[in-house]
Amino acid sequence: MTTQQMDTVGAGRGGRMSRQRKRDAVLRLLRGEDLDMVSRSLGVTAATLSSWRHAFLDGGEASLATKPTDGEERESDRLKARLGEMLLERELLEQKIALLEGNSGPLGRRRSRR
């Protein structure tokens, strides 16, 4: 079967199409094929094809954004705050260890229990 013949088989009315087949359909539209012709060959409505094209272009545009999305920015801020907390905690623990090792208190020089 040729690619063109495979396209005419389509998803069948009410069937599901894979992401790759949807992408290929959108690329056909972007290359200039007629919307109605692609619609008929795949057995989907022109409105469905148009919505796939719109979603495809929106996704491509979003991937070109240089500023992170709100969700990414919030997560980055949360992780930075957590990192700051952990570094501060580490520094305090290091100071505490240094103080305890310098003292002859309970963790300082111990006598053996022989």
Can you tell me about this structure?
- This protein has 114 residues and is mostly helical.
- It has a domain at 3-63: Arc Repressor Mutant, subunit A (Orthogonal Bundle).
- Helix content is 68%, strand content 0%.
- The protein is built from five helices and no strands.
- Helix 2 crosses helix 4 (46-63).
- The model is unreliable at 1-10 (pLDDT under 50).
Choose one word for the global shape: rod-shaped
What is the CATH topology of the domain at 3-63? Arc Repressor Mutant, subunit A
Supply the helix-strand structural class.
mainly alpha
CATH architecture of the domain at 3-63: Orthogonal Bundle
CATH secondary-structure class of the domain at 3-63: Mainly Alpha
Tally of separate helices: 5
Averaged pLDDT? 79
Concise description?
This protein is mostly helical and 114 residues long. Helices cover 68% and strands 0% of the residues.
Describe how the helices and strands are arranged.
Layout: H1 3-9, H2 19-30, H3 35-42, H4 46-63, H5 70-102
Helix pairs in contact: 1-3, 2-4
Key words describing this protein structure:
disordered N terminus; 0% strand; 114 residues; mainly alpha
